[in-house]
Amino acid sequence: MTPRVKHVSTSDIAGGAARAAYRIHHCLRDAGVDSRMVVNKASAGDWMVEGPATKGRKALAAVRGRAVSPLVKMLKTGNPIIHSPAILPSQWAKRIHASDADIVHLHWVQGEMLSIADVGRIQKPIVWTLHDMWAFCGAEHYTEDHRWRDGYRRDNRPSHESGFDLNRWTWQRKRKHWQQPIHIVTPSQWLADCVRDSALMRDWPVSVAANPIDTERWKPLEQSLARELLGLPADVPLLLFGAMGGGRDPRKGFDLLLQALEHLRDDPHAQGMELVVFGQRAPQSPPNLGFPIHYTGHLNDDLSLRALYSAADAMVIPSRQDNLPNTGVEAHTCATPVIAFHTGGLPDIVDHQRTGYLAQAFDTEDLAEGIAFVLDQRKTGLLGDQAREKALKQFSYEVVAPQYQAVYKAALENSRS
């Protein structure tokens, strides 16, 4: 019997984690799985996505903000990332219990949707796809220290933190409420290794399944047409960089890209190159990078994004830390090579010198070499063809759906034993 699956996500399409969850849901629907979503914020207009009751929703969100914000502010930290203590209960746990779901599939839920205790109260078999590090950390969504591996003790707090130890308190609540192992799925091998090394989840079952994408819908457009549609120059090398908020998130490594571009100013392979930045409008005082820059702002519909990837000769993802960024998967699906650092989940996307270039972690000269290498190959189209081929073999619905079906089977069997 095909299990009924209920995906639980804060949103359906607002943000990278939400879009990944929505694609997993549709990937399974295409495979014949009875898959539905419940979300706190429904934006897609999809009848298979159930949103919250609208009565009092805004007032409740305001109350949650007033309650949680002072707690987060008690943590003094120089780490500019989101912290989610996930303390306030909601009605979602009751709704999940009342549903006919055989499997509860959690995604990014740790904001306004489910508290840590709520997760522990779910009695149905759970599968949890991690879109960041939060589940096995404290309150932080990403971190460069190793308390998640060693345990959140009083004697191993990082020097950049002071005040109330929100992360230790949050981690202890997870240990208290999550008594039964949950079947974890990670989109990248890096994140799976982190789970296996973590003090909280090292004995839990872990599977790796890439974030899927509809390769029938996502396919390359003819480059000259894509550039014409977007108003981009026709005959110059175009290098693409994208992130929510553009260069404001230090984890996305825009500053490292700037250093790499400095190395490229006199490189003959980068002669005539222009940059395209999406996820950000042109700032009041654009930086002088030695190369012309085109800012596209936020592009939310799939056709515009397909055109953007197809217009570019290469995409650069200079992240310091990333799981399996949708931008890399989308670029490869549109036959666009990717240049990135060998870190996090990026080696799961890029095959070095075959579908792009993997530079030594945070070596900006090597990143510059990678950009030059890919641009030098652009006329042959070989890297792009191989990127598309990899996307078909690794990220297509037909490949990923059976991986999740196997996870569901294991989760159901474990719940009966």
TrEMBL record:
InterPro entries: Glyco_trans_4-like_N. Residues 15-217 form the Glycosyltransferase subfamily 4-like N-terminal domain. It comes from the Bacteria. Pfam families: Glyco_trans_1_4, Glyco_transf_4. This is Glycosyltransferase family 4 protein. The lineage of its organism: Bacteria, Pseudomonadati, Pseudomonadota, Gammaproteobacteria, Chromatiales.
